[in-house]
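G., the chain you wanted modeled:
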Amino acid sequence: MTPMLALTAADKSFALKQSKPGQPKTMLKAVDQVSLTLYRGETLGLAGESGCGKSTVAKLISGLLKPDRGTVAFMDTSLDRLDRPALQEFRRNVQMVFQDPFSSLNPRMRIGDAIAEPLVIHGLCEQSALRTATLSLMDQVGLAADQYDRFPHEFSGGQRQRIGIARALAASPQVLVADEPVSSLDISIQAQIINLLQELRQKRGLTMLMVSHDLGVLRHVSDRIAVMYLGSIVELAPAQALFTRCCHPYTQALLAAIPRIHRDRVSAAPPLRSAELPSASNLPTGCRFHPRCPYAQALCSSQAPPLEDKQPGHAAACHFSQEIFSR
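Predicted structure as tokens:
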């Protein structure tokens, strides 16, 4: 498969607000040495708890944030090497659907104008055909023509997310980055949006990065799934392999949290030693998961495990993965 986007050894930190003037800055490590490759035509799922760095990775890979260290490459070319026209072409080809459909739309802009804006910015449509092209996009995402002149406050959360999807598709992108696109929506609406994204992916041949804290959602849409914990990738595998036999205790805990009717091997996993996620401004030594891991041993607190293949195409960062998951 052809790599579309690649994030290589990327770091990103943010300075926390100082409680008192003159105090040294405290840095929050949002992303630490993350490498991900997104291949043409695939959907890569990115999972993990809130605060683990998923949204930061999405913004790095879409060019909205610049890594402190490491590189982001589109079609084997680093974004740092792109001139202004090439960078604009990258931004057209990589579009993002944001997590919050309420704050991602301009409340003073009619939704027809909001959807049409990328067509105007990238010169993709003549002014005379602008309304027709916009109505076609609205139809593709399930919005009625008579809603063109309405404002965002007149729509429900699910409808606003459809507007955001239409706006992202207006630029005819090759890659769509969806950052928790259904997390703020009612359960009944979530399936509609997920099905819409799947349908659009197939019709348009899109490559997608789908970010979600819900592995149950990612299972149905992803070809591969990467699991993040405290800024690092701890497991990366084909979706089916991850659900059949995971190779990291944190992934096991996420799988066990998925509601199910019947008790099985995954749901019978031992509970975590702590429910609290450690602070990203004061990371644990060694394996970052060891303070919560039910299988942790002395080595885990002193030595960080590398992300390496445990099975062909199935990587995990755990010292004792083979022993734990061969039982």
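The chain has a mean pLDDT of 91.

Shout if anything looks off.
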